[in-house]
């Protein structure tokens, strides 16, 4: 007998179809609508499947203002950075050779290492630069020593020289006489020789051999007032001087802007071709020594519909482009690669008051972005088989500035921000990186080409294992800094080598490892009391999410974790 369903049956099916269609349209047109959908993720970590070394590529930091180094909050932060890393941290700073009295200012600094007397003879002065390097070396840190910028007495276009830039004014105001090529390349070379020689005498040959020397910053931009050819000439003179002072020293460059774009790629290729087959401006021979290759990579956040939207894809494409260029040179592809500035955007000293797109910097958006982006840096290096040495986070601290002004810094007035705790987490990850599979992750190509913009967050992990520990860093990241439902993460860890393990679970979110949220609860004081500062300092440290515990396993364990959007967790196992 044929069944004839009643009319309401057809209406019910039609309503389902219409509701499904409406939901699809809403998700396509209004991605924020997806926030009402609860997120789940299943993540499996296999400790028996290594995928590469857990190299400390994160243990590199930099900043524009070198005179902050030996100031109160600068010393405090450097001590904390040194303490969080199991290996020596590398530090890169601009303005190491700039002329001035050492008074710091935003995007400015000076050491006065070179002046000339009335007869035009060189006068070398090392006190200020020694104070900077002493601060590093005393903490076991290593300089990524920048040869730049041009001393006033050597500049071919010296005036005006020192700028007085302020946030909110044109960025072009900073490009003054310090950007120009030297009026005398021999004097430049002698200055570099004398500086490296002085460092060897002060710190010892073995110590200086462990440093990296690099020429200039972003010479494909207004930071360099000369041409590609003039930069290559300056590089040849710099290499000759460094190697004369210390033949075993390491020097490289060119620290171009994003090589994912045509300008950075053209300059980087031109420089590398000069190093391989160009005529050396000092020796007249073919080629120039190069010990590492450096370029920069930045994201591009903006304000959309009243909230900050990050753009991790832009940064990842620059990294991919730079790695691809280096890999295309058989003679050079083995060289270490240093991403000399690797950040969510380009201006550390542009606060959120003048640049509202930078409002991500105080809270957990910055920390989750950092976790998710570093995992992709490792993956890009793996995929292109390059020698990825380090990625400099261009973020430090700014002395005597308003609390939580929204600079791209790791601490404000001596109080650590959430992002610094991601690096504390990285400091607990050693040995080998191991295989991670997540059913809620963005694959590498999609993250680079389209960024993290879909209905679902990037819920993913990075994991490591060494002789007696394992660690899993998890994050719930999305480019849109808006509220979302908490994700339920089912984490399975396979290949645990002991039946009994000691488990720690650390967390960065709105309630943990977060001085910014506490400061807001205090009423956002610009003159906090001593008692409030102590509370803020405590809140700025990496916090446990649960109490440490012993667990029993039969080679694997399963953990169920609630992970809010922009939160980062680190689960460690010891045996």
What does this structure look like?
By secondary structure, the chain is an alpha/beta fold. The chain has a domain at 41-51 and 431-574: Immunoglobulin-like (Sandwich), CATH 2.60.40. 31% of the residues lie in helices and 24% in strands. The chain has 13 helices and 23 strands. It has helices at 7-29, 72-84, 127-138, 185-203, 205-209, 228-245, 262-277, 312-327, 364-384, 418-426, 444-450, 515-521, 530-539, and strands at 40-53, 60-63, 90-93, 114-116, 122-124, 142-147, 212-215, 251-256, 293-298, 302-304, 307-309, 336-343, 387-391, 411-412, 415-416, 432-438, 458-465, 469-477, 487-494, 500-508, 543-552, 556-563, 568-574. Helix 9 (364-384) runs parallel beside helix 10. It is globular, with a radius of gyration of 26 Å. The chain starts with 6 loop residues before the first helix and ends with a strand. Residues 5-10 and 22-36 have low confidence and may be disordered.
Residue share in helix: 25-40%
Shape: globular
Strand order of the largest sheet: 21-20-23-18-17-16-1-19-22
The CATH superfamily of the domain at 41-51 and 431-574 is identified as: Glycosyl hydrolase domain, family 39
- Top CATH class of the domain at 41-51 and 431-574: Mainly Beta
Q: Cα-atom Rg, whole angstroms?
A: 26 Å
Strand content: 15-25%
Distance between the termini: 69 Å
| Oligomer status | single chain
The overall strand count is 23
Enumerate how many helices there are, as a single number: 13
Supply the helix-strand structural class. alpha/beta
Poorly predicted parts? 5-10, 22-36
